[in-house]
Amino acid sequence: MSEQHTIPEKPPYAMISILFIGAFVAILNETLLNIALPSIMRDFEVEPTAVQWLSTGYMLVNGILIPASAFFIQRFTNKSLFITAMSLFTAGTLLASLAPSFAILLTARMIQASGSAIMMPLLMNVMLTAFPVEKRGAAMGTFGLVMITAPALGPTLSGWIVEHYDWRTLFDIVLPFAILTLILSIFKLKNVTPQRAIRLDVVSLILSSVGFGGLLYGFSFAGDKGWDDPEVYGTIIAGVVALVWFILRQLRMDDPMLEFRIYKHPMFALSSAISIVISIAMFSGMILMPIYVQTIRGIDPFESGLLMLPGAILMGIMSPITGRLFDKFGARVLAVIGLTITIVTTYFFSELSMSTSYANLILLYSLRMFGMSMVMMPVMTNGLNALPMHHNPHGTAMNNTLQQVSGAIGSALLITVMNNRTEARAEELMTDAMAKAGTTQLSPDAAAAMQQEVTNQAMLNGINFSFFVSMFIAALALLLAFFIKRPKRSPENPEEAKTSVAPNVVTE
Protein backbone atom coordinates (compact mmCIF):
# COMPACT_ATOMS: atom_id res chain seq x y z
CA MET A 1 0.00 0.00 0.00
CA SER A 2 1.30 3.44 -0.86
CA GLU A 3 0.90 6.63 1.05
CA GLN A 4 -0.34 9.92 -0.31
CA HIS A 5 2.05 12.75 0.34
CA THR A 6 1.24 16.21 1.62
CA ILE A 7 3.82 18.96 1.91
CA PRO A 8 4.12 20.32 5.47
CA GLU A 9 2.68 23.82 5.87
CA LYS A 10 5.92 24.98 7.46
CA PRO A 11 9.26 23.39 6.49
CA PRO A 12 10.90 21.67 9.50
CA TYR A 13 14.00 23.89 9.58
CA ALA A 14 15.32 22.58 12.91
CA MET A 15 15.21 19.02 11.68
CA ILE A 16 16.83 19.89 8.36
CA SER A 17 19.63 21.66 10.25
CA ILE A 18 20.42 18.44 12.13
CA LEU A 19 20.48 16.52 8.85
CA PHE A 20 22.76 19.20 7.37
CA ILE A 21 25.29 18.84 10.19
CA GLY A 22 25.32 15.06 9.85
CA ALA A 23 25.78 15.18 6.08
CA PHE A 24 28.51 17.85 6.36
CA VAL A 25 30.49 15.81 8.89
CA ALA A 26 30.12 12.64 6.79
CA ILE A 27 31.26 14.29 3.53
CA LEU A 28 34.09 16.14 5.27
CA ASN A 29 35.31 12.87 6.74
CA GLU A 30 35.38 11.25 3.28
CA THR A 31 38.08 13.66 2.05
CA LEU A 32 40.00 14.19 5.31
CA LEU A 33 42.05 11.02 5.15
CA ASN A 34 43.68 11.31 1.70
CA ILE A 35 46.58 13.54 2.79
CA ALA A 36 47.12 11.38 5.90
CA LEU A 37 47.68 8.15 3.93
CA PRO A 38 51.53 8.41 3.94
CA SER A 39 51.52 8.80 7.75
CA ILE A 40 49.24 5.78 8.12
CA MET A 41 51.56 3.77 5.82
CA ARG A 42 54.50 4.51 8.12
CA ASP A 43 52.61 3.78 11.35
CA PHE A 44 51.16 0.44 10.24
CA GLU A 45 53.98 -0.48 7.81
CA VAL A 46 51.67 -1.16 4.86
CA GLU A 47 52.18 -0.72 1.13
CA PRO A 48 50.53 2.05 -0.97
CA THR A 49 48.25 -0.50 -2.66
CA ALA A 50 46.91 -1.54 0.76
CA VAL A 51 46.52 1.92 2.30
CA GLN A 52 44.65 3.13 -0.79
CA TRP A 53 41.76 0.88 0.28
CA LEU A 54 40.95 3.34 3.07
CA SER A 55 39.67 5.62 0.30
CA THR A 56 38.69 3.05 -2.33
CA GLY A 57 36.81 0.87 0.16
CA TYR A 58 34.91 3.89 1.46
CA MET A 59 33.91 4.79 -2.09
CA LEU A 60 32.87 1.23 -2.94
CA VAL A 61 30.60 0.91 0.10
CA ASN A 62 28.98 4.21 -0.91
CA GLY A 63 28.56 2.95 -4.46
CA ILE A 64 26.89 -0.24 -3.25
CA LEU A 65 24.55 1.30 -0.65
CA ILE A 66 23.48 4.53 -2.37
CA PRO A 67 21.43 2.70 -5.07
CA ALA A 68 19.65 0.82 -2.28
CA SER A 69 18.85 4.10 -0.48
CA ALA A 70 15.60 4.48 -2.46
CA PHE A 71 14.30 1.30 -0.82
CA PHE A 72 15.45 2.33 2.69
CA ILE A 73 13.89 5.81 2.39
CA GLN A 74 10.53 4.38 1.30
CA ARG A 75 10.52 1.50 3.77
CA PHE A 76 11.66 3.21 6.99
CA THR A 77 10.93 6.53 8.68
CA ASN A 78 13.44 9.29 8.11
CA LYS A 79 14.07 9.50 11.88
CA SER A 80 14.92 5.81 12.38
CA LEU A 81 16.97 5.76 9.17
CA PHE A 82 19.04 8.81 10.09
CA ILE A 83 19.65 7.60 13.67
CA THR A 84 20.82 4.22 12.34
CA ALA A 85 23.10 5.87 9.75
CA MET A 86 24.53 8.33 12.28
CA SER A 87 25.07 5.54 14.84
CA LEU A 88 27.05 3.52 12.30
CA PHE A 89 29.09 6.57 11.31
CA THR A 90 29.82 7.47 14.95
CA ALA A 91 30.81 3.90 15.85
CA GLY A 92 33.10 3.74 12.82
CA THR A 93 34.72 7.06 13.73
CA LEU A 94 35.38 5.94 17.32
CA LEU A 95 36.82 2.61 16.16
CA ALA A 96 39.08 4.38 13.62
CA SER A 97 40.42 6.72 16.30
CA LEU A 98 41.38 3.77 18.51
CA ALA A 99 42.38 1.30 15.75
CA PRO A 100 45.43 -0.74 16.88
CA SER A 101 45.99 -2.26 13.41
CA PHE A 102 45.42 -1.43 9.75
CA ALA A 103 42.79 -4.15 9.38
CA ILE A 104 40.69 -2.62 12.16
CA LEU A 105 41.15 0.88 10.69
CA LEU A 106 39.92 -0.38 7.32
CA THR A 107 36.94 -2.06 8.99
CA ALA A 108 36.16 1.20 10.79
CA ARG A 109 36.21 3.10 7.47
CA MET A 110 33.75 0.61 5.99
CA ILE A 111 31.41 1.08 8.97
CA GLN A 112 31.67 4.85 8.55
CA ALA A 113 30.84 4.55 4.86
CA SER A 114 27.78 2.38 5.52
CA GLY A 115 26.35 5.23 7.58
CA SER A 116 27.36 8.15 5.39
CA ALA A 117 26.04 6.51 2.20
CA ILE A 118 22.44 6.96 3.37
CA MET A 119 22.74 10.54 4.66
CA MET A 120 22.96 12.46 1.38
CA PRO A 121 20.00 10.78 -0.38
CA LEU A 122 17.97 11.01 2.84
CA LEU A 123 18.67 14.73 3.28
CA MET A 124 17.79 15.47 -0.34
CA ASN A 125 14.56 13.50 -0.08
CA VAL A 126 13.50 15.25 3.14
CA MET A 127 14.09 18.63 1.49
CA LEU A 128 12.09 17.66 -1.59
CA THR A 129 9.30 16.54 0.72
CA ALA A 130 9.39 19.60 2.97
CA PHE A 131 9.53 22.36 0.35
CA PRO A 132 7.09 23.12 -2.50
CA VAL A 133 8.49 23.20 -6.04
CA GLU A 134 8.63 27.01 -6.21
CA LYS A 135 10.87 27.20 -3.11
CA ARG A 136 13.14 24.23 -3.75
CA GLY A 137 15.85 26.23 -5.49
CA ALA A 138 16.78 28.17 -2.36
CA ALA A 139 16.53 25.03 -0.21
CA MET A 140 18.64 22.89 -2.52
CA GLY A 141 21.10 25.77 -2.90
CA THR A 142 21.70 25.65 0.84
CA PHE A 143 22.07 21.88 0.51
CA GLY A 144 24.68 22.53 -2.19
CA LEU A 145 26.71 24.48 0.38
CA VAL A 146 27.17 21.22 2.30
CA MET A 147 27.82 19.09 -0.78
CA ILE A 148 30.41 21.48 -2.22
CA THR A 149 32.14 23.07 0.78
CA ALA A 150 32.80 19.95 2.87
CA PRO A 151 34.93 18.04 0.30
CA ALA A 152 36.79 21.25 -0.60
CA LEU A 153 37.66 22.05 3.02
CA GLY A 154 38.81 18.48 3.72
CA PRO A 155 42.29 18.58 2.11
CA THR A 156 43.18 21.99 3.61
CA LEU A 157 42.10 21.04 7.12
CA SER A 158 43.69 17.61 6.82
CA GLY A 159 46.99 19.07 5.57
CA TRP A 160 47.24 21.41 8.56
CA ILE A 161 46.30 18.71 11.10
CA VAL A 162 48.69 16.09 9.71
CA GLU A 163 51.49 18.66 9.65
CA HIS A 164 51.05 19.47 13.36
CA TYR A 165 49.35 16.44 14.96
CA ASP A 166 48.90 12.66 14.69
CA TRP A 167 46.58 11.36 11.94
CA ARG A 168 44.18 10.01 14.60
CA THR A 169 43.31 13.64 15.37
CA LEU A 170 41.34 13.66 12.12
CA PHE A 171 38.87 11.23 13.68
CA ASP A 172 39.06 12.82 17.14
CA ILE A 173 37.86 16.14 15.68
CA VAL A 174 34.96 14.55 13.80
CA LEU A 175 33.79 12.35 16.72
CA PRO A 176 32.27 15.07 19.01
CA PHE A 177 30.24 16.50 16.11
CA ALA A 178 29.01 13.02 15.20
CA ILE A 179 27.95 12.30 18.81
CA LEU A 180 26.22 15.68 19.15
CA THR A 181 24.33 15.17 15.89
CA LEU A 182 23.27 11.68 16.99
CA ILE A 183 21.94 12.97 20.33
CA LEU A 184 20.05 15.83 18.67
CA SER A 185 18.54 13.45 16.11
CA ILE A 186 17.18 11.17 18.84
CA PHE A 187 15.31 14.00 20.56
CA LYS A 188 14.56 16.47 17.76
CA LEU A 189 13.91 14.59 14.53
CA LYS A 190 10.34 14.19 13.30
CA ASN A 191 8.97 12.00 10.52
CA VAL A 192 8.02 13.93 7.38
CA THR A 193 8.48 11.32 4.65
CA PRO A 194 5.79 8.74 3.77
CA GLN A 195 6.55 5.03 4.12
CA ARG A 196 5.40 2.04 2.11
CA ALA A 197 5.40 -1.64 3.10
CA ILE A 198 7.76 -2.79 0.35
CA ARG A 199 10.16 -5.73 0.34
CA LEU A 200 13.81 -5.67 -0.67
CA ASP A 201 14.61 -7.82 -3.68
CA VAL A 202 17.85 -9.56 -2.67
CA VAL A 203 18.78 -10.46 -6.26
CA SER A 204 18.49 -6.78 -7.25
CA LEU A 205 20.70 -5.78 -4.33
CA ILE A 206 23.38 -8.31 -5.36
CA LEU A 207 23.26 -7.23 -9.02
CA SER A 208 23.39 -3.57 -8.02
CA SER A 209 26.37 -4.18 -5.73
CA VAL A 210 28.31 -6.10 -8.39
CA GLY A 211 27.31 -3.68 -11.14
CA PHE A 212 28.04 -0.33 -9.54
CA GLY A 213 30.82 -1.74 -7.36
CA GLY A 214 32.55 -3.30 -10.36
CA LEU A 215 32.39 -0.09 -12.39
CA LEU A 216 33.68 2.03 -9.51
CA TYR A 217 36.52 -0.37 -8.75
CA GLY A 218 37.59 -0.83 -12.35
CA PHE A 219 37.58 2.83 -13.33
CA SER A 220 39.20 3.90 -10.06
CA PHE A 221 42.25 1.70 -10.69
CA ALA A 222 42.43 2.17 -14.47
CA GLY A 223 44.55 5.31 -14.13
CA ASP A 224 47.19 3.55 -12.00
CA LYS A 225 47.20 -0.01 -13.35
CA GLY A 226 46.34 0.67 -16.98
CA TRP A 227 43.38 -0.46 -19.08
CA ASP A 228 45.11 -3.70 -20.11
CA ASP A 229 45.27 -4.98 -16.53
CA PRO A 230 42.91 -8.01 -16.12
CA GLU A 231 41.79 -6.68 -12.74
CA VAL A 232 40.68 -3.43 -14.38
CA TYR A 233 38.90 -4.64 -17.50
CA GLY A 234 37.64 -7.77 -15.73
CA THR A 235 35.81 -5.82 -13.01
CA ILE A 236 34.48 -3.28 -15.55
CA ILE A 237 33.08 -6.05 -17.78
CA ALA A 238 31.56 -7.82 -14.75
CA GLY A 239 30.09 -4.49 -13.64
CA VAL A 240 28.56 -3.77 -17.05
CA VAL A 241 27.02 -7.25 -17.34
CA ALA A 242 25.58 -7.10 -13.80
CA LEU A 243 24.31 -3.55 -14.35
CA VAL A 244 22.51 -4.46 -17.60
CA TRP A 245 20.94 -7.46 -15.84
CA PHE A 246 20.00 -5.22 -12.91
CA ILE A 247 18.32 -2.62 -15.17
CA LEU A 248 16.36 -5.26 -17.13
CA ARG A 249 15.19 -6.80 -13.85
CA GLN A 250 14.06 -3.43 -12.49
CA LEU A 251 12.07 -2.68 -15.65
CA ARG A 252 10.17 -5.98 -15.24
CA MET A 253 9.34 -5.40 -11.56
CA ASP A 254 6.19 -3.64 -10.36
CA ASP A 255 8.02 -2.34 -7.28
CA PRO A 256 11.71 -2.06 -8.27
CA MET A 257 14.57 -1.36 -5.89
CA LEU A 258 15.69 1.48 -8.18
CA GLU A 259 13.14 2.87 -10.65
CA PHE A 260 14.71 3.39 -14.10
CA ARG A 261 11.38 4.40 -15.64
CA ILE A 262 11.98 7.89 -14.21
CA TYR A 263 14.04 8.46 -17.37
CA LYS A 264 10.76 8.69 -19.27
CA HIS A 265 10.62 12.24 -17.89
CA PRO A 266 12.66 14.26 -20.44
CA MET A 267 13.91 16.96 -18.05
CA PHE A 268 15.14 14.42 -15.50
CA ALA A 269 16.92 12.47 -18.24
CA LEU A 270 18.52 15.70 -19.52
CA SER A 271 19.59 16.78 -16.03
CA SER A 272 21.23 13.37 -15.47
CA ALA A 273 23.13 13.63 -18.75
CA ILE A 274 24.39 17.15 -17.93
CA SER A 275 25.31 16.14 -14.36
CA ILE A 276 27.34 13.16 -15.61
CA VAL A 277 29.22 15.28 -18.17
CA ILE A 278 29.93 18.15 -15.76
CA SER A 279 31.04 15.72 -13.00
CA ILE A 280 33.60 14.23 -15.37
CA ALA A 281 34.83 17.71 -16.32
CA MET A 282 34.91 18.88 -12.69
CA PHE A 283 37.32 16.11 -11.73
CA SER A 284 39.97 17.62 -13.99
CA GLY A 285 40.46 20.42 -11.48
CA MET A 286 40.23 18.20 -8.41
CA ILE A 287 42.78 15.65 -9.70
CA LEU A 288 45.11 17.53 -12.03
CA MET A 289 45.62 20.64 -9.90
CA PRO A 290 47.24 18.81 -6.92
CA ILE A 291 49.52 16.93 -9.35
CA TYR A 292 50.59 20.21 -10.96
CA VAL A 293 51.17 22.23 -7.79
CA GLN A 294 52.76 19.45 -5.71
CA THR A 295 54.63 17.22 -8.17
CA ILE A 296 55.72 19.78 -10.77
CA ARG A 297 55.86 23.02 -8.79
CA GLY A 298 56.95 21.51 -5.47
CA ILE A 299 54.30 23.30 -3.39
CA ASP A 300 53.63 21.49 -0.09
CA PRO A 301 50.24 19.80 0.53
CA PHE A 302 49.00 22.41 3.00
CA GLU A 303 49.61 25.32 0.59
CA SER A 304 48.14 23.19 -2.17
CA GLY A 305 44.97 22.84 -0.12
CA LEU A 306 44.96 26.57 0.65
CA LEU A 307 45.09 27.29 -3.08
CA MET A 308 41.71 25.58 -3.48
CA LEU A 309 40.14 27.06 -0.35
CA PRO A 310 38.99 30.45 -1.79
CA GLY A 311 37.22 28.63 -4.60
CA ALA A 312 35.47 26.37 -2.09
CA ILE A 313 34.39 29.34 0.04
CA LEU A 314 33.14 31.21 -3.05
CA MET A 315 31.23 28.16 -4.18
CA GLY A 316 29.70 27.77 -0.73
CA ILE A 317 28.63 31.44 -0.63
CA MET A 318 27.18 31.26 -4.13
CA SER A 319 25.22 28.06 -3.62
CA PRO A 320 22.25 29.58 -1.67
CA ILE A 321 22.31 32.64 -3.95
CA THR A 322 22.24 30.43 -7.01
CA GLY A 323 19.30 28.55 -5.49
CA ARG A 324 17.25 31.73 -5.20
CA LEU A 325 18.20 32.74 -8.74
CA PHE A 326 17.03 29.32 -9.89
CA ASP A 327 13.60 29.87 -8.30
CA LYS A 328 13.32 33.18 -10.18
CA PHE A 329 14.94 32.52 -13.56
CA GLY A 330 15.10 28.74 -13.95
CA ALA A 331 18.05 26.43 -14.60
CA ARG A 332 18.84 27.15 -18.26
CA VAL A 333 20.14 30.72 -17.83
CA LEU A 334 22.28 29.75 -14.84
CA ALA A 335 23.65 26.62 -16.51
CA VAL A 336 24.58 28.43 -19.73
CA ILE A 337 26.38 31.26 -17.86
CA GLY A 338 28.05 28.87 -15.41
CA LEU A 339 29.25 26.45 -18.09
CA THR A 340 30.58 29.31 -20.23
CA ILE A 341 32.69 30.48 -17.28
CA THR A 342 33.81 26.89 -16.66
CA ILE A 343 34.86 26.40 -20.29
CA VAL A 344 36.83 29.66 -20.44
CA THR A 345 38.69 29.01 -17.17
CA THR A 346 39.38 25.41 -18.18
CA TYR A 347 40.99 26.71 -21.39
CA PHE A 348 43.30 28.95 -19.34
CA PHE A 349 44.20 25.92 -17.20
CA SER A 350 45.29 24.17 -20.40
CA GLU A 351 47.93 26.92 -20.80
CA LEU A 352 49.76 26.36 -17.49
CA SER A 353 53.51 26.89 -17.39
CA MET A 354 56.37 26.38 -14.94
CA SER A 355 56.10 30.04 -13.96
CA THR A 356 52.31 30.47 -13.57
CA SER A 357 51.95 32.52 -10.39
CA TYR A 358 50.27 31.21 -7.23
CA ALA A 359 47.86 34.20 -7.34
CA ASN A 360 46.82 33.38 -10.91
CA LEU A 361 46.17 29.76 -9.94
CA ILE A 362 43.93 30.86 -7.04
CA LEU A 363 42.05 33.31 -9.28
CA LEU A 364 41.48 30.80 -12.08
CA TYR A 365 40.45 28.01 -9.73
CA SER A 366 38.06 30.33 -7.84
CA LEU A 367 36.44 31.53 -11.08
CA ARG A 368 36.07 27.92 -12.22
CA MET A 369 34.34 27.01 -8.95
CA PHE A 370 32.13 30.08 -9.34
CA GLY A 371 31.01 28.76 -12.72
CA MET A 372 30.44 25.27 -11.34
CA SER A 373 28.29 26.66 -8.52
CA MET A 374 25.79 27.94 -11.09
CA VAL A 375 25.37 24.55 -12.72
CA MET A 376 25.29 21.49 -10.45
CA MET A 377 22.42 22.11 -8.01
CA PRO A 378 20.12 24.09 -10.38
CA VAL A 379 20.37 21.39 -13.05
CA MET A 380 19.85 18.60 -10.51
CA THR A 381 16.90 20.35 -8.84
CA ASN A 382 15.29 21.08 -12.22
CA GLY A 383 15.41 17.38 -13.03
CA LEU A 384 13.99 16.30 -9.67
CA ASN A 385 11.16 18.82 -10.03
CA ALA A 386 10.01 16.88 -13.11
CA LEU A 387 9.35 13.71 -11.09
CA PRO A 388 6.15 12.74 -9.27
CA MET A 389 6.55 12.94 -5.50
CA HIS A 390 6.58 9.15 -5.06
CA HIS A 391 9.62 8.92 -7.34
CA ASN A 392 11.74 11.38 -5.34
CA PRO A 393 13.66 8.63 -3.46
CA HIS A 394 14.54 6.99 -6.78
CA GLY A 395 15.57 10.33 -8.30
CA THR A 396 17.87 11.24 -5.42
CA ALA A 397 19.38 7.73 -5.31
CA MET A 398 19.96 7.79 -9.07
CA ASN A 399 21.64 11.23 -8.95
CA ASN A 400 23.96 10.31 -6.09
CA THR A 401 24.87 6.98 -7.71
CA LEU A 402 25.64 8.59 -11.07
CA GLN A 403 27.85 11.18 -9.36
CA GLN A 404 29.90 8.39 -7.78
CA VAL A 405 30.25 6.45 -11.03
CA SER A 406 30.88 9.48 -13.27
CA GLY A 407 33.48 10.72 -10.79
CA ALA A 408 35.35 7.42 -11.08
CA ILE A 409 35.04 7.46 -14.89
CA GLY A 410 36.20 11.08 -15.03
CA SER A 411 39.22 10.32 -12.85
CA ALA A 412 40.23 7.31 -14.96
CA LEU A 413 39.67 9.11 -18.25
CA LEU A 414 41.68 12.21 -17.37
CA ILE A 415 44.52 10.33 -15.68
CA THR A 416 44.78 8.06 -18.72
CA VAL A 417 44.82 11.04 -21.09
CA MET A 418 47.50 12.71 -18.95
CA ASN A 419 49.68 9.57 -18.71
CA ASN A 420 49.52 8.80 -22.43
CA ARG A 421 50.33 12.37 -23.40
CA THR A 422 53.11 12.55 -20.81
CA GLU A 423 54.78 9.36 -22.09
CA ALA A 424 54.58 10.48 -25.72
CA ARG A 425 55.92 13.95 -24.93
CA ALA A 426 58.72 12.56 -22.71
CA GLU A 427 60.03 10.48 -25.61
CA GLU A 428 60.03 13.54 -27.89
CA LEU A 429 61.76 15.76 -25.35
CA MET A 430 64.36 13.12 -24.45
CA THR A 431 65.18 12.60 -28.14
CA ASP A 432 65.61 16.38 -28.60
CA ALA A 433 67.74 16.67 -25.45
CA MET A 434 70.02 13.81 -26.51
CA ALA A 435 70.37 15.34 -29.97
CA LYS A 436 71.40 18.68 -28.47
CA ALA A 437 73.89 17.00 -26.15
CA GLY A 438 75.39 15.19 -29.16
CA THR A 439 78.55 13.32 -28.28
CA THR A 440 79.10 15.34 -25.09
CA GLN A 441 79.55 13.05 -22.09
CA LEU A 442 77.18 14.25 -19.36
CA SER A 443 78.05 13.88 -15.70
CA PRO A 444 75.65 11.79 -13.56
CA ASP A 445 74.31 14.98 -11.92
CA ALA A 446 73.78 16.69 -15.29
CA ALA A 447 72.08 13.58 -16.71
CA ALA A 448 69.78 13.38 -13.66
CA ALA A 449 68.94 17.07 -13.94
CA MET A 450 68.13 16.68 -17.63
CA GLN A 451 65.94 13.64 -16.88
CA GLN A 452 64.05 15.56 -14.18
CA GLU A 453 63.50 18.55 -16.46
CA VAL A 454 62.22 16.32 -19.26
CA THR A 455 59.88 14.51 -16.83
CA ASN A 456 58.43 17.77 -15.47
CA GLN A 457 57.97 19.30 -18.93
CA ALA A 458 56.31 16.13 -20.23
CA MET A 459 53.98 15.90 -17.24
CA LEU A 460 53.06 19.58 -17.58
CA ASN A 461 52.20 18.96 -21.22
CA GLY A 462 50.08 15.97 -20.18
CA ILE A 463 48.20 18.02 -17.57
CA ASN A 464 47.58 20.85 -20.03
CA PHE A 465 46.27 18.42 -22.64
CA SER A 466 43.95 16.81 -20.06
CA PHE A 467 42.52 20.23 -19.21
CA PHE A 468 42.07 20.84 -22.94
CA VAL A 469 40.09 17.59 -23.27
CA SER A 470 38.10 18.59 -20.17
CA MET A 471 37.18 21.87 -21.88
CA PHE A 472 35.46 19.96 -24.71
CA ILE A 473 33.67 17.75 -22.19
CA ALA A 474 32.31 20.89 -20.51
CA ALA A 475 31.35 22.24 -23.94
CA LEU A 476 29.17 19.16 -24.46
CA ALA A 477 27.35 19.99 -21.20
CA LEU A 478 26.87 23.58 -22.45
CA LEU A 479 25.29 22.29 -25.65
CA LEU A 480 22.86 20.14 -23.65
CA ALA A 481 22.06 23.06 -21.31
CA PHE A 482 20.33 24.97 -24.13
CA PHE A 483 17.58 22.33 -24.11
CA ILE A 484 16.70 22.82 -20.41
CA LYS A 485 13.11 23.88 -19.70
CA ARG A 486 11.11 24.36 -16.53
CA PRO A 487 9.42 20.99 -16.08
CA LYS A 488 5.73 20.49 -15.57
CA ARG A 489 5.48 18.25 -12.55
CA SER A 490 3.94 14.89 -13.40
CA PRO A 491 0.77 14.06 -11.45
CA GLU A 492 0.84 11.30 -8.90
CA ASN A 493 -0.36 7.87 -9.97
CA PRO A 494 -4.19 8.02 -9.76
CA GLU A 495 -4.35 4.33 -8.84
CA GLU A 496 -2.12 5.01 -5.84
CA ALA A 497 -4.21 7.97 -4.81
CA LYS A 498 -7.37 5.82 -4.65
CA THR A 499 -5.86 3.48 -2.08
CA SER A 500 -3.74 5.98 -0.23
CA VAL A 501 -3.68 6.86 3.41
CA ALA A 502 -2.38 10.00 5.04
CA PRO A 503 1.28 9.84 5.90
CA ASN A 504 2.75 10.56 9.27
CA VAL A 505 3.74 14.16 8.51
CA VAL A 506 4.84 16.27 11.43
CA THR A 507 5.56 19.98 11.12
CA GLU A 508 7.51 22.15 13.45
Descriptive notes:
The protein is mainly alpha-helical and 508 residues long. The chain folds into 2 domains: 398 residues, MFS general substrate transporter like domains (Growth Hormone, Chain: A, Up-down Bundle), CATH 1.20.1250.20; 56 residues. The chain is built from 19 helices and no strands. Helix 5 packs across helix 7 and helix 14 runs antiparallel to helix 18. The longest helix has 46 residues. The radius of gyration is 24 Å and the shape is globular. The two termini are 27 Å apart.
Q: How helix-rich are the residues, as a percent range?
A: over 70%
Q: What percent strand?
A: under 5%
Q: What is the chain-wise order of helices and strands?
A: HHHHHHHHHHHHHHHHHHH
Structural class: mainly alpha
Q: What is the CATH superfamily classification of the largest domain? A: MFS general substrate transporter like domains
Gyration radius, in Å? 24 Å
And the CATH topology of the largest domain?
A: Growth Hormone, Chain: A
Largest sheet: none
GO molecular function, one term: transmembrane transporter activity
Subcellular location: Cell membrane
Membrane topology: Multi-pass membrane protein
Family: Belongs to the major facilitator superfamily. EmrB family.
